[in-house]
Each structure stands twice: as C-alpha cells, then as structure tokens.
C-alpha cells in the first residue's frame, strides 16, 4: 500500500472483507474471554433502569503468526439477551471452538462461531468473538479495520438514548461538536 493513500481510500479489491472470507486461512493459537467491568462517568438511566457501570465481556484472539485481535461483547440485560455470566460462558465455548480446529478459511470459522452462538439470543457475544477474530486477521495482513470494511467517511449515523427533557453534559458536548462542523 502506498504511503500516499488517503484515509477515505478503500482497500485494493483483493483485500476487501468479502474476498478474505474465502481466500484467507485462519489458524487460531489462543482465544480467551474475560470480564470487562467499567464504572461509568455518569449514570445512564432509561425507563426504570439505571446503570452505574458496564459489565461486558472482552475477547482476545491470538493467531499462530502472533497477531492479536480484541473484541467486546456489550452486555445490557434489559436490552441484550445475555447477562455477563451467560456471555462469559458462551464466549468461553466459542473460544474453545476456535482453538480446537485446524487452519481453515475465515468464512468457515465465522460460520462455526455463528453455529455456536446462534440468532438473537447470543448476538452480542457473537459480535465480540467475531470482532476479535477479524481484528487479529486485519493485524495479520497489515490493514486497519476501517480500511478492510471499505474506507472512512466524514459522517456517521448513530443512535443515542438521552433522558427525556434533560440537557446532560454529554449531550451539550455532542451539540458543540455538531455545530463546529
């Protein structure tokens, strides 16, 4: 890749994620999950729930070539189907599958993860395990994730839940950032 490439440039056709699903062989040496408990700077309150800390699951995947990737399974029991205990157990199960298998195409490995963590019930854990694996692969081929998934943009579409009729300091910062563009 050229040093003159701009942040918005897409990867060469052969390095697009969809192509790597079939052409890239993945050999996982180690995979593990651990609790990721982090206090929030400000409580998050919606409806009848108040959250003072997140209790997520971090996933680390190391390929046989030494490249490491990280993923995170967001756990919010009143939104996601998993609680942290269940997410830890299912992430451990998926990590065991990753380390027991021989080297195969990335798409095959992602299919096996989907089989272990099917449907909506384990979607958050599946996302965390997949992201750790894909991050390790991206590190292994020397392509940043943003480029692997098609490049960069000057704007994003997101969803944020803000308490009704409040002017939270975080909301004020978002307005300042928006108005500065």
From TrEMBL:
GO MF annotations in UniProt: metal ion binding
Superkingdom in the source lineage: Eukaryota
Coiled-coil zones: none
Record-linked Pfam families: MR_MLE_N
Signal peptide bounds: none
Name of the protein in its database record: Mandelate racemase/muconate lactonizing enzyme N-terminal domain-containing protein
Lineage: Eukaryota, Viridiplantae, Streptophyta, Embryophyta, Tracheophyta
Keyword field: Metal-binding
Keyword RNA-binding: no
Mandelate racemase/muconate lactonizing enzyme N-terminal domain mapped to chain residues: 39-150
Originating organism: Punica granatum (Pomegranate)
């Amino acid at each position: 890749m050229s040093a003159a490439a701009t942040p918005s440039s897409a990867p060469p056709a052969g390095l697009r994620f969809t192509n790597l699903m079939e052409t890239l062989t993945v050999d996982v040496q180690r995979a593990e999950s651990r609790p990721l408990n982090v206090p929030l700077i400000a409580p998050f309150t919606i409806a009848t729930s108040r959250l003072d800390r997140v209790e997520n699951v971090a996933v680390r995947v190391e390929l046989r070539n030494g490249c490491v990737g990280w993923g995170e399974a967001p756990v919010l029991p009143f939104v996601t189907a998993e609680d942290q205990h269940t997410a830890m157990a299912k992430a451990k199960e998926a990590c065991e599958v990753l380390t027991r298998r021989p080297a195969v195409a990335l798409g095959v490995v992602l299919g096996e993860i989907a089989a272990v963590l099917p449907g909506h019930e384990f979607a958050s854990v599946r996302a965390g395990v997949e992201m750790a694996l894909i991050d390790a692969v991206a590190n292994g081929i020397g392509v940043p994730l943003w480029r692997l998934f098609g490049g960069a943009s000057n704007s994003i579409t997101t969803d944020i839940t803000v308490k009704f009729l409040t002017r939270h300091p975080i909301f004020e910062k978002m307005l300042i950032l928006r108005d500065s563009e």
